[in-house]
Design goal:
The chain is mainly α and 453 residues long. It is 77% helix and 0% strand. The chain is built from 18 helices and no strands. The longest helix is centred in the first third of the chain and has 34 residues, at 13-46. It is globular and about 60 Å long.
Length: 453
C-alpha cells in the first residue's frame, strides 16, 4: 500500500492551503535571491561600499554558498523535525539577514548578510517542494512543482521593479529593506500552515495526524513505522544502494551545471547586458522578461512532463517524462544563452531573453521534479535537498565565474561559459533519462509511488 495521501486528499482544501502558503514563501525567496542582481549595476556604478566587479562576483557566491549549506542540511533536518517548522525558520532567517545587508557599512558585513540569507533561501526551496509533493494530485506532481516554482520567478520580477522604482531615488539599501518585510509572514506561516500528513504518520505522531485529517476531512496516508535514531541517515544512504548511486550522481552533476547557469545568469544578466551596450532600464526589463519566461516555462514543462505520452514508463515503472523534458530544455537554453552574446536588435533580444527564461528555469526544476517523484515520502526531502545541495556548488561557482570574467575584461565570454554549462546538464540528465527508460526492474517502493500517482 502506498504511503502517499489518497487522490481525494490531494484535491482537498488542505492541498490548496499548503500549495498557497508554499507559493507565498517561495515568492519571498525569489525576491530575496534576485534582488542582489537587480541592484548590482547601480552598486557598481556608484561604487557602493567600495565594491569592485571581482568582489561583486564573490558576494554573489557568498549567498549561493549559504544556499549550499541550507540545502544540504534542510532535507535531513526537515525529515527529522518537520517541513513546517523548517519553513518558518528559513523565512525568518533570510528576512532578518536582508536587514543586515541594508544596515551594512562594509563589504564584509554585507557578505555576512548575504551568506545568512543564502542559508535560509537554500533550506526553504527543497522543503517547500517536499510539502507540495506530499499533496499533489495524482498524475500532476511535476505540474504542481512547476506551479510552485512560478513563485520564485514572480519574486524575480518583483525584485526588478523594486530596483527600478526605489534604488534611484532612495538608494540600494531600500531594496534590501523591502526584503525584510516577509518577516511579517512568519507568524501567519507558523499559525496556518499544517504539517505534512506523511511526515506525521512516518514519525509515529498518529494523534496529530488524525486531528489534522479530521479538521480538513481528508484521508490519512497509510502508516509506516517511525525510524529509529540509528536509521536517520538511511534515506541518504539509500540514494547509493545498488545501482542507485549512478542515477544519484547523474542528477547531482546535472544539477551542478543547471544551477551554475541559473545563478550565474540571475546575478550577472543586467550587468552583462549593460556591457553589451543596453541602458539600465533595458537591462532591468531583461530581468522581468527572463522571469516571465520562467513562469511560462514552469507551467509548460510541468504539464509536458505529466502528459500521458511523456510519462512513458520503463519495465520497472520509472517515470521518464520530467528528465526527458529537462534534457530538451537544457539544449534550448544553451542555444538561447549563447545568442545573448551576439548583438541583435532590441526587439529580437527581448524575445531571446524571454525564451531563454522559459527553458532555463524550468529545465532545472524538472530535475527536482524527477528526484521528488521517484522518492518515497519519508525520504523525499532528503533526496531533493541533497540534489539541490550538490547543485549549489555550481550556484557558488556561477556568480564567481561571471565576476572573474568581467574583472578580466572578458565579460562577453560569460554567456559562452554559461551556455557550456547548459550543454553539460543536457548530457547528464539525458543519460539519466535513458538509463531510467532501459532499467529492467526497480524497487517495490518506487512502484508503489508510481501507482499512487
Amino acid at each position: 500500500m502506498s504511503s502517499s495521501p489518497a487522490p481525494s486528499a490531494r484535491g482537498s482544501r488542505l492541498a490548496l492551503l499548503v500549495v498557497g502558503l508554499c507559493w507565498l514563501a517561495v515568492l519571498f525567496d525569489g525576491l530575496d535571491m534576485f534582488v542582489y542582481g537587480s541592484v548590482l549595476p547601480h552598486m557598481l556604478e556608484t561604487k557602493a561600499l567600495g565594491i569592485t566587479p571581482g568582489q561583486a562576483g564573490d558576494l554573489g557566491s557568498y549567498a549561493t554558498f549559504g544556499m549550499l549549506v541550507g540545502a544540504l542540511t534542510a532535507g535531513t533536518v526537515a525529515d527529522r523535525i518537520g517541513r513546517k517548522q523548517l519553513m518558518v525558520v528559513c523565512v525568518a532567517l533570510f528576512s532578518l539577514a536582508s536587514g543586515i545587508c541594508a544596515l551594512s557599512g562594509s563589504v564584509a558585513v554585507f557578505g555576512l548578510g548575504r551568506t545568512l540569507a543564502g542559508v535560509g533561501l537554500g533550506g526553504l526551496l527543497p522543503t517547500a517542494i517536499s510539502m507540495v509533493s506530499d499533496y499533489a494530485r495524482g498524475g500532476r506532481g511535476a505540474l504542481t512543482i512547476g506551479a510552485l516554482m512560478t513563485a520564485h520567478h514572480a519574486g524575480g520580477i518583483l525584485s526588478a521593479y523594486v530596483a527600478k522604482w526605489l534604488v534611484e531615488p532612495l538608494g540600494w539599501r531600500s531594496a534590501f529593506w523591502v526584503c525584510v518585510l516577509p518577516l511579517l509572514f512568519v507568524p501567519v506561516l507558523a499559525k496556518v500552515m499544517p504539517e505534512s500528513l506523511s511526515f506525521l504518520v512516518a514519525k509515529g505522531r498518529a494523534a496529530e495526524a488524525r486531528d489534522l485529517a479530521a479538521r480538513y476531512e481528508v484521508e490519512l496516508p497509510a502508516g509506516t513505522p517511525p525510524k529509529a535514531p540509528a536509521d536517520r541517515w538511511s534515506a541518504l544512504l539509500g540514494l547509493f544502494r545498488g545501482g542507485e548511486w549512478i542515477q544519484t550522481l547523474l542528477y547531482w552533476l546535472a544539477s551542478f551545471g543547471g544551477l551554475l547557469l541559473v545563478y550565474g545568469v540571475a546575478t550577472w544578466l543586467p550587468t552583462l547586458m549593460r556591457g553589451e551596450g543596453y541602458n539600465l532600464g533595458s537591462a532591468l526589463t531583461f530581468v522581468v522578461l527572463f522571469n516571465l519566461g520562467g513562469i511560462v516555462g514552469m507551467l509548460v514543462a510541468g504539464r509536458a512532463s505529466d502528459l500521458p505520452h511523456a510519462r512513458l514508463r520503463s519495465r520497472g515503472g520509472t517515470p521518464t517524462g520530467a528528465p526527458r523534458i529537462s534534457a530538451i530544455w537544457f539544449a534550448l537554453t544553451a542555444a538561447g544563452v549563447f545568442l545573448l552574446s551576439v548583438r541583435m536588435p532590441l526587439g529580437v533580444t527581448f524575445v531571446v531573453v524571454f525564451l531563454t527564461g522559459v527553458f532555463l528555469n524550468s529545465a532545472q526544476t524538472m530535475i527536482y521534479a524527477t528526484v521528488s517523484l521517484r522518492s518515497t515520502p519519508d525520504s523525499r526531502a532528503t533526496a531533493v535537498g541533497w540534489t539541490s545541495g550538490m547543485g549549489r556548488f555550481g550556484a557558488v561557482f556561477g556568480p564567481w565565474l561571471g565576476g572573474q570574467l568581467l574583472a578580466a575584461g572578458n565579460g562577453d565570454r560569460g554567456f559562452t561559459a554559461f551556455a557550456l554549462a547548459g550543454v553539460s546538464s543536457m548530457v547528464f540528465i539525458g543519460i539519466a533519462a535513458l538509463r531510467s527508460a532501459r532499467r529492467p526492474e526497480h524497487s517495490g517502493a518506487e512502484q508503489q509511488l508510481s501507482a499512487a500517482r
